[in-house]
Amino acid sequence: MLSPVLRGVAFAAAVFCCSAAVHAHHIPGTGTKSTTQSDDFESGNWQFHYNHPKSSREQDEQVRGPLAFSSNKKWREGPKRGTPDHVVRVDTPPGGIEGSKYSLSLKSLHTGIPGRVTREQQQDDLLMHTRPVPVSWMPSCVVRIYLPEWDQWEDRTGSHFGIRADLRTTTMKEEEVPFIDPRARDGGRSKRGGLFGRLFRTAMVETTEPYWPGMFIQFHSKTDSRFSRDSAMVIVRGDKTGNVIPGPAINEPGWWTFGMSFTGDGAVHFYASPGVDDLTPEDHITSQFPYGYQAHTFTTMFFNNVNNDDGHTWSTEFIIDDPAIYYAAGSGNSDRSASSSSRNRR
Fold it and tell me: Among candidates 210, 237, 217, 28, which has minimal Cα distance to 106?
């Protein structure tokens, strides 16, 4: 009989093989790198301006503006879950991109609602400031991430860091519309309401829906009886039902390269590889329509710090470098680098 882990891997493989057809591989980093939607953190004036207390709209519907932002205006606090507590320019760790002197350190202590301790897994968001573009432009995002030595991780088996995309799809939802609205002609239930007893009817209405696929770095702690040694792995969120898909194992800390690409059929393509080299077809993990959605718009990339929100244990510190958005097609040349090569990093 297969172990639970092997059964999960087999199930994930079956889901991938049976998922709807997607476009041919679109390797993240293909095309032209945007100069306004990328950051190498080399500027000596780089700073992050916090505006605590942070937002926590997801937990208590509170957006506490003004939102935090970076001095170069390329990064901002996410209103849904708030800013990380520590967003600091640091020396690039050994083994990073050639020529890189500085990178960005991210970690958090209070990931939930300000002033409260939940003792539950919480996360916060650092968003790259971008503009929405259609997926027909074939956007992609790439980032290098430094994983610290195992003894520096929060001692907790589970997700520690997220590399995410903000996408938009179109769904149909039942809503109340005025009786005279043309959409009401398709049927539905009649209902009177409002100050003057106006007649409404329910109708299926086309709605733009946000969703946030991505990859998480999941730690397996040796203090957990299920694991004999410290290690990590990449998990993808998610398949067409929203379930996670197991990705490559991470047996040694250090630099990894992560990327996601988006194609005109609305699919998301996930890539990851050890080191800082450009991604290749061999680094492809899976291509999916996460949650059964087909994307029509790419909005931005963002990062999650995750911890147990106990009020005294910091999340694991991750260091990112050279996050960037690329376009393989479409318009927007004014936002792009003068170079036609997608592989020029510095």
Answer: 217
In CATH, the number for domain 4-169+209-335 is 2.60.120
> Alpha-carbon distance 125 to 49, whole Å?
15
Number of residues that make up the chain: 346
CA angle 68, 56, 270 (to 5 degrees): 80
- DSSP-assigned letter for residue 264: T
pTM of the model: 0.85
176-230 pLDDT per residue, tens: 766 566 655 555 454 544 444 456 667 778 899 999 999 999 999 999 999 999 9
Rounded Cα distance between 130 and 86, Å, is 22
Q: How far does Cα 156 stand from its chain's mean position?
A: 21
Q: How many helices (H) and strands (E) does the chain have?
A: 2, 20
The label of the residue with tokens 């036609």 reads 340
Tens-digit pLDDT profile for residues 23-49: 667 999 999 999 999 999 999 999 999
- Phi and psi angles of residue 183, each rounded to the nearest 5 degrees, phi first: -70, -20
Structural domain boundaries in the chain: 4-169+209-335, 174-204
3-state DSSP percent of the chain in helix, strand and coil, to 5:
10, 45, 45
